[in-house]
Amino acid sequence: MKRQQKTVIRKARISDAVKIHKLVQYYAKEDLMLARSLMDIYENIRDYFVAEKARAIIGCCALHICWKDLGEVKALAVNPVYRKKGIGKDLVEKAMDEAARIKLKKVFCLTYIPKFFRKFGFRKIEKRYLPHKIWNECINCPKFPNCDEVPMIKKIKKTDVRENKLIGEINNQQ
Ligand SMILES: CC(C)(COP(=O)(O)OP(=O)(O)OC[C@H]1O[C@@H](n2cnc3c(N)ncnc32)[C@H](O)[C@@H]1OP(=O)(O)O)[C@@H](O)C(=O)NCCC(=O)NCCS
Question: Residue 124 maps to which CATH number?
Fold first, then answer.
């Protein structure tokens, strides 16, 4: 009997960039997410998390720092074969862990699926509350200025740091 391969969520490496690009392009062609150039992915590779299973990249998600207290979660995608198995959730939670670890106060997203992000505590806001800086990316979007993405934001709480919480618990037991 074949052993089930585990899915691992980890920080992206340079060698993942082409696979991330392929995944993002797949959904961009279906108009489900913003297209990103390979150059953009290389430049921002440190923002990315990937889901890896049996050496294949089956999901990605990025956390980009925008300002002293604000980050953006973006480029979230899961290979269609592996959707609805909790991988999208694990990727977003990993990005939120990182946001809490580096002490970001808020994280926003621009999304076509507000129902999904609501599950993680994101709430709708008006675009005007987001800094102008973030619209740089929008200028290159074919939909600009008729954007139909929903802006949402989440406050990061101390309890979002799952790893640190665990470390705290271990230290307390020692
Ligand atoms: C959106 C996406 C990343 C979700 O990944 P996934 O691995 O299928 O999601 P999960 O299995 O972790 O789902 C977590 C929860 O969200 C729900 N969910 C999943 N996709 C959803 C969607 N499109 N709309 C609303 N809810 C959704 C699931 O039912 C699950 O709910 P539960 O916890 O109550 O059971 C994936 O469907 C995808 O790649 N979509 C195409 C690209 C895209 O839309 N990216 C987002 C751009 S902002």
Answer: 3.40.630.30
